Structure formats: C-alpha cells, structure tokens
Amino acid sequence: NGYNNSHYLNHFNGNISLTTPENEYLFENYKNITYDKVEVEYYEEHHHLEQAMTKHGNKWYAIKQNPENLAQKAYAKLMLNTCYGYLGFFESPISTYEYKSVNGVTVKEKAKDGITGINFAEVPAASFITAYGRCKLANDINKVGAQNVVCCDTDSLFVINYDFDELNKLLPISTQLGDLKLEHEFEQIKALKAKTWCIADENGSVIGQATAGSNYKFKHISSFNEGETIVSS
C-alpha cells in the first residue's frame, strides 16, 4: 500500500500547537506519541457563526454550481474563498515606511504605525478549518501512498503512477462540497517549491501552472526551471 505519512515523522523538540483533529490524527497514524507538558484551550460553540457560515456557504456554493455566466461563477468562488480567509485575518500591528533622498543618499524612514486585520476575525474557527483540510489531505496521501504524491497544496494533491479509474477507487471523485474533484490529467510535472508547479501533456505543452509571486505564464514545461529569468511581454 505504499508508505504511510508516518514514515516521514522523526523526532520533534519544542512547542507545538495542535487542534483536536490534528491531535487525533497523530495518535491514529503514529506510534509512541508522548508530550512532556500539555496546555489545553477550550472554545465555546459559536452558534451564530456556524449559522452564518452555513447560510453563506450554501448560497454561494449553489450559485457556483449553476452560474448564469463565467463572471458570476468567479465571483461565487471569490465569496467562498475569502470568507475563510477573513476568519483568520486577525488584527496585528504594522509599520509603513517611506524612502527619502538625504544628501544624495536614499534612506528608509518609518512613516507611521497602524493596525492591519479585522476586529471580528475568528482565528480558532480558521485554525480548525485548516486542520480538518490538512488531516483530510494527509489521510488521502496515506491511501494512495506518499511515494505517489509529488506535492500538495492547501486543497489539492498531485498524484502520479495511477490512471483515473484506479485513483477513483481509492479517492472517489464526487460533486459533494469538501470532496476532491478531478481538475487535470497530465503526463509531466515539475514542482520547484510551495505553490510553484507546472503540469504538461506528453509534448510538454503546459496544462496548468502556479508560480508563487508572479502571474507569468510558461508555454512549455522545459522553460519551467529554478532561477529562470522572467521577462514581461
């Protein structure tokens, strides 16, 4: 059945924060888990948030599934994705700077201090959503074998050595919210770092790609290399 994710866990020293689903995943998949000291934080159920999230999710997911046009579909996806992001967008101090020329020398000076984020963020909720997603991906990786996963992102896996029918038996593809769906089939893949990957057909023509920090689009996978010069056209 291939390697379990536990094959890659060694020893960890230091403080670590875990949600309940992450802690349960550890004890289900690893042996000899011990903690020297544990501090537990309990959160009351936030019924109003639960109701609001359910209403918001149902509304925009229904629109995304049956949009009137592509623009409405894109907007619905934006409303679904940003809702989760705002939950974790907590207030934190931030400093802004400006650059001045002093005697012919450019110097950096603090302009002002401020606050970024929103005061109605719900970080515990965002943490648990992330944790459930992370544990689902980890369990899915265990099913297909870690040696068959080139890379993963927040909500996606890049799997090799399976055809679609074989993969669908292990990870059934459905239309249910929260389940995996098939986005691309590819013959070649390069993954350089987090959120920087490229997939292509048998001829090397790019099917899909992500380049963290850039919107530049490569046309052929042979050009997708570490340190590649990007020139705007």
UniProtKB/TrEMBL annotation:
InterPro entries: DNA/RNA_pol_sf, DNA_pol_palm_dom_sf. It comes from the Bacteria. This is DNA-directed DNA polymerase. The lineage of its organism: Bacteria, Bacillati, Bacillota, Bacilli, Bacillales.
